[in-house]
Design a protein that fits this description.
Layout (H helix, E strand, L loop, with lengths): L15 E4 L3 E5 L10 E11 L12 E2 L2 E5 L7 E18 L4 E18 L28 E9 L10 E4 L2 E4 L5 E7 L5 E7 L2 E8 L6 E2 L2 E2 L5 E6 L4 E8 L3 E7 L4 E3 L5 E2 L2 E9 L4 H6 L3 E2 L10 E12 L5 E4 L5 E6 L10 E8 L4 E12 L7 E7 L5 E7 L71 E9 L10 E3 L4 E3 L5 E8 L4 E6 L6 E5 L6 E2 L3 E2 L6 E4 L4 E5 L2 E5 L4 E2 L9 E10 L3 H6 L15 E8 L7 E2 L5 E6 L10 E8 L4 E10 L5 E6 L5 E3 L5
Parallel strand pairs: 1-7, 8-14, 8-15, 13-22, 30-36, 30-37
Antiparallel strand pairs: 2-5, 3-4, 3-6, 6-7, 8-11, 9-10, 9-12, 12-13, 16-21, 17-18, 18-25, 19-20, 19-24, 21-23, 23-24, 23-29, 25-28, 26-27, 26-29, 27-28, 30-33, 31-32, 31-34, 34-35, 38-42, 39-40, 40-45, 41-44, 42-43, 43-49, 45-48, 46-47, 46-49, 47-48
């Protein structure tokens, strides 16, 4: 085919709201052809979240309709899908191509599926057991049905449609006029009204009691400053508040970002949202969350502040990001000219949306903007990306359920991991070849990666017996990994918060390849040579990547201990074979094989390495683009591997064989040789594919 692209006709339908365990069908039946041709392809892919997955990463479901059962979630989760359709039209016979030549219309559309957690209570006909999220120890006893109504608008008084308004366990969306209506039971306890919208900062108001029909109107705003930046470069975001002399700002670090939902390291483009308001302004009072309803209009506020800053970072799919546990950002607050009291230190408090309270956390110091400036500012460092208030006064007795923030940090043990390879020598596994011939270290085989096919010779298609494979995925600190994708040829699933997985319908074949993938970890795999009953495997370890970013037009050397990989400039293609010229993120991981961790992280082994595969050492590689998609080397491009000569090597011949791990075939395959340096301290080789590479891999 020869294809031209134009127009748009995909229609994924309207957004859906369902509960956990519900059956959902996405349909492209409303899609239409734009040119009277034939619709030849429908593709569905999941854009977010990273976990749980309904469609695995880098996978597409084909078909006009796609049906699935929603996974169990603890809180409402938005699943975002993209539909791609292809129409062929104006087809003519081409003598040159000896076949049809068609024009093509490629189009896309997106749809959201909002999945709510299953309710544990069985009373769905009344609200006698309604409980506030912020007062879980109190049960309402007054069953009089009353209404909280209101309107959600922006500061131009324009109504906000599809804003989510939540009170306790009840959630509604505003209509086209921005209004909402929630029926509640009367209570003398505190009621929190929370408003959310994907394009706006959240807001909330508090009713100290609710004993009659009440109107609560609220305003929400879009971020004043929006900036996109690379996670590896950081950003300095400034919002002027009065001419060009007074401003608020945040200085975000280079690298050190995690996904809030999984605590996994994030590398890529970050979209930052920021707004600052002095609390003395009318807008500042109306937009500050956590205030008692009505008190924003008078001077008897339960909260007072020099000013507050709203901060939110998201990835390209809208997933919320946090700072890593060892990273900090710096905030600068202007001195509000309407408040005369200026102490040297003021408490910085962050807003906890779970309890709708401002919680004191750290201090900001009065200081000059810089050494030559006469302008004073308050400067403080923070370790969490939340809303931050420069407090002047907070009535702590008003806030219920103030919680300690000591348990909120989630430090990933990988950061403290120390590779003990050098202390784990096992002399029983030391060996050498002693008989390889000399070579120049370059691989002589052409890159046949695009021509590789899966090894189907071991599959018994007549055996329809199904078994279950279960187990856990852990990191190098033996902590569970959430959201890892485990797959065989026909089945896939992802791990839960305990790192557990279960493949329920695995065919009994003579060879089963179990692959483990996670965007923030190196891949791993295990081989099962027979399956005659349900199997529970030992924990499979995966190691978190240590990403290094560079432009594709630049060269880069990355080291791991004494091992290194040289990445040349202008050497990368996308998985579809297109030239790639943007940001590259590469990670390498070197191990000697004769260590416990070396065996645990080497792909392609059985549980107990019953094949007795051996190797001197190996390097795992992971190279991705700025959207976390894997990259390939261009034809005739090579990367250079350097393996250190270890004391455990029995011999150091002039050359040693190299092998790469073929994921599709589930085995190590020899390709080329590595050459010993003149000082006999290292082996080097040029290779033509991005993969795991082993030095002197021996398969008996």
């Amino acid at each position: 085919f020869t294809l031209w692209f134009a127009g748009c006709s995909a229609d994924a339908g309207t957004d859906q709201r369902v509960s956990s365990g519900a059956k959902v069908t996405l349909s492209a039946s409303l899609s239409s052809t734009s040119h009277g041709g034939d619709m030849v392809r429908y593709e569905w892919e999941q854009l977010s979240p990273l976990s749980p997955r309904i469609i695995p990463v880098d996978t597409k479901k084909l078909g006009k309709k796609f049906t699935f059962v929603t996974p169990s979630v603890k809180a409402e989760t938005k699943f975002r899908f993209r539909l791609t359709t292809v129409e062929h039209y104006d087809c003519t016979y081409s003598a040159t191509l000896k076949g049809p030549s068609c024009k093509s219309d490629l189009s896309t559309d997106k749809i959201n599926v909002f999945v709510s957690a299953k309710r544990t209570d069985t009373n769905t006909t009344n609200d006698t057991n309604e409980t506030n999220l912020t007062d879980n120890n109190t049960t309402e006893t007054n069953t009089t049905a009353l209404h909280i109504v209101g309107k959600i608008t922006d500061f131009d008084n324009l109504p906000i449609e599809q804003a989510t308004v939540t009170i306790g366990r009840k959630t509604v969306e505003t209509n086209s006029t921005g209004t909402y209506d929630i029926e509640m039971n009367a209570t003398s306890k505190k009621v929190v009204i929370q408003v959310q919208h994907a394009d706006y900062f959240n807001n909330s108001r508090i009713l100290t009691s609710f004993e009659k029909n009440t109107t609560v109107n609220m305003k929400i705003e879009k971020p004043i400053k929006t900036v996109s930046f690379s996670s590896n470069l950081g950003a300095y975001i400034k919002q002027y508040t009065s001419g060009l002399t007074r401003y608020a700002s945040i200085n975000l670090p280079a690298s050190g970002y995690t996904l809030r939902s999984t605590n996994d390291t994030y590398v890529g483009t970050i979209n930052a949202k920021m707004s600052y308001h002095p609390f003395s302004s009318r807008k500042g009072k109306l937009l500050m969350p956590g205030i008692e309803n009505g008190r924003e209009y008078n001077s008897t506020n339960t909260i007072n502040s020099y000013g507050y800053m709203r901060i939110e970072l998201v990835d390209e799919e809208g997933n919320v990001l946090d700072l890593a546990s060892n990273k900090e950002a710096t905030l600068i607050f202007p001195v509000d000219t309407n408040i005369s009291k200026r102490p040297n230190n003021i408490t910085l408090s962050y807003f906890n949306e779970a309890t709708d309270t401002w919680i004191p956390n750290t201090n900001a110091t009065l200081t000059k903007e810089n050494n030559t400036s006469t302008v004073y500012v308050y400067k403080g460092t923070i370790s969490a990306l939340k809303s931050w208030s420069l407090d002047l006064y907070t009535d702590k007795t008003f806030h219920l359920n103030i919680i300690s923030d000591t348990n909120e940090s989630n430090s990933n043990g990988d950061n403290n991991y120390s590779n003990g390879d050098n202390n784990n020598s096992n002399n029983n596994n030391n060996y050498g070849t002693g008989g390889t011939t000399s070579g120049n270290g370059d691989t002589n085989n052409s890159n046949t990666e695009n021509n590789e096919t899966e090894d189907n010779s071991t599959t018994n298609i007549n055996n329809t017996t199904k078994y279950k494979i279960s187990g856990t995925i852990t990191n190098t600190q033996n902590k569970p990994v959430l959201g890892a994708v485990i797959s065989t040829k026909s089945e896939y699933t992802s791990t839960d918060s305990n790192g557990s997985y279960s493949l329920e319908n695995v065919s009994s074949t003579s060879k089963i390849m179990l692959n483990v993938n996670h965007s923030n970890y190196f891949d791993n795999s295990r081989i099962l040579h027979s399956l005659t009953k349900d199997a529970t495997l030992k924990a499979i370890k995966i190691k978190k990547i240590s990403p290094h970013a560079f432009l594709a037009l630049n060269e880069k050397v990355i080291t791991d201990g004494s091992a290194s990989v040289y990445f040349p400039s202008n050497a990368y293609n996308t998985s579809k074979g297109k030239d790639y010229l943007f940001s590259v993120t590469a990670s390498i991981d070197y191990h000697r094989f004769n260590t416990p961790l070396g065996k645990a992280l080497m792909p392609g082994l059985t549980e107990e390495n019953t094949e007795n595969i051996r190797a001197y050492s190996y390097i795992n590689l992971k190279v991705i683009d700025n959207k976390n998609n894997p990259l390939k080397l261009k034809a005739r491009s090579t990367i250079t591997l350097t393996f250190p000569v270890e004391a455990t090597f029995l011999s150091t011949p002039a050359t040693l064989p190299l092998s790469y791990y073929n994921v599709k075939k589930g085995k190590w395959m020899k390709e080329g040789e590595a050459t010993l340096s003149t000082d006999k301290t290292k082996y080097t080789a040029k290779v033509k594919r991005i993969s795991s590479w082993g030095l002197n891999v021996i398969i008996p």
